[in-house]
Amino acid sequence: MSSSEYQPILVAESSENNTSNLSNSEINKILLIEDNAADARMVELLLVESGMNHCELIVRNSLNSGLKALEESDDYAAILLDLSLPDSIGFDTLSTVLKQFPNNNVIVLTGHQEHQLGLKALKMGAQDFLTKGDYDAGVFLKTIRFSIERKKYLKKIEEAQTRYQNIFTNSKDAIYVCNYEGKLVDFNKSTSVITGYDNSELFGLPIEALFENRNFWDAFQERVFQSKFVVEEEVNIVCKDETIRNCIISAGQLVYGNFIGINGFIRDITERKQAEKLRQDRKVADQTSKLKEQFIASVSHEMRTPMNAILGMSNLVLKTELDEEQFNYVKNIKNSSEILLGIVNDILEISSIQAGKVKFNYANFDFHSLMENMINVMQYKVDEKNLKLVLNLDPSIPQYLEGDQLRLNQILYNLVGNAIKFTDNGEVTITVSVVNEGHGSWHIQFEVQDTGIGIPDDKIGVIFETFTRIRSKDRIFEGTGLGLSIAKNLIEYQGGKIWVSSEHGVGSKFSFDLIFEEGVEPETDKPDDEDFDPNTRFDLLLCEDHMINRIVATKTLLKQFPNINLVVAENGKLGVEKLKEADFDIILMDIQMPIMDGYEATQYIRNNMEPEKAQLPILAMTAHANIAEDDKFKDYGMDDYVLKPFKPERLFSKIGHYVTLKRSNKHRSNT
Ligand code: ADP
After folding, report:
1. Which of 327, 371, 377, 402 would be a feasible disulfide site paired with 517, CB 3.0-4.6 Å?
2. Ligand 1: nearest atom to the Cα of 448
């Protein structure tokens, strides 16, 4: 700062005349660029006189030093500029300042009688002019105050602009401006990101070119111009790489100055839509699979009920006196119904696997006995076909393992059954070996090898799929094409693998592996019914609505238990009435019955009858295979269940078991 310059002064607040609404803490800096010390003093006095609050006057005596002050800080509320300075004269002075610091309020100080110059200065962009020597405190005050307000306002606008600029730039939505002809004249980065076009391609592009439906824009634009409000619509955008994006476009009229156009945003909702669609699809799939499950459960029920009648009746007929021809006919009926039942069971099994509902029951079991039993059961099939059945069982495998023995049986029966089915000469060899062993875990591999028809190379990849069967011209094998798929699922659910090698016409080898924990001898639940004498006198209540099944059950039971007192009720309600009238040892309860079903009847018996009767053993008899699921029958207060079509022996053994329990008074009273 040169010595000739004024020291900045602070103009004291005047208590009167204080019309400013500025907050006291604000100091408004005013820059005076004036080389004439007397004129500068004059301004200073005016400022005091005008009663401006908190003003700091900073004085510079040349254009350059003034510009320098502005460079250091551009928050001057006003710049009072003398047009004739030592280093610049006339309007150049003004234009230099305005050019370099456009966002400032320049008040030009003109000489006496230079009104015309002042007006010209206004035209050039000065905010105002004051005539030297003609200063009036009131005018001066107004001018300065206006400057201060204007500066603040400009500052706010500037901040807002930065803010809006940020919103504009950083918005994930495309923000666009189109002129009246629908050409893009401004847009943000996201416009490029969404469409894939770069800025130079977008600029001037007719926006309609972006839409999949080329007629979209005309109609849309018309609606925008007709509406006072923002219009929003879904539209598909074709990107540069020709992919289609689902978007929402919004638009409103944009009018400023001579410009009439449209602005708005384009929001990419492709992902959202996809997610929505996925959700929707999943919902439909869930519903479909539920429907399928219900359908399968109900169809299988519908099939099992009459099959119970067919199988039961066949069993009864087979026990009567028949000549050989008749015997063979009935035997065939029975065999065919058993195959049919197997198919129904397979379908139920695969549908519960597909629904992810398969459950495993891990327990100790006698592994060696299981393998030997299987060989025994399969022996008669092998004998029928004159084949050899060989078991190679590594003796180092522990006698007892822990695992799901029912599932293991199911897998083995399937593979061995297939091997026998597809082999006419030679042998079926089952090899069980140890892959490795440690920490009480046994990794065991099973191989089922046959010398049968083999599998063609091009079919080997699909045989594990559901309903896959290899057709052969000269022979038809019975089956559903579900067995291998069930086996594969059961193995994989337990962490194992299954694979096959085969040579067409030579034979096949199916292998799988599973890991078992070393087990202990299971506690044998020595069945109480083992010594149950079929001639025992006992009272049984049978609730069953299906006429033929009633006959089947009655005849079957009477044959096995000649001294039984069997009372029949045609629905749950009648059953409850019979129970009120007499004492029983056991109740067989069908589930689906009219008037009062098996669940309701059981509930009633358990909750409303005298203790002796409320605690009677109740066996559910149902064709609904899913009764075993999650022990559903227990939730309804039943003790056990027999699946229809029932195997007579199983029914007898369960009856024997529960009647013995009841008679020995162990049933319920001590559970
Ligand atoms: P299914 O035996 O009921 O037809 P699977 O799923 O058990 O159904 O088997 C599918 C198909 O794989 C069979 O129909 C048969 O074509 C083929 N296959 C399975 N096991 C053998 C085998 N041991 N030898 C030859 N072909 C076999």
Report:
1. 402
2. 23
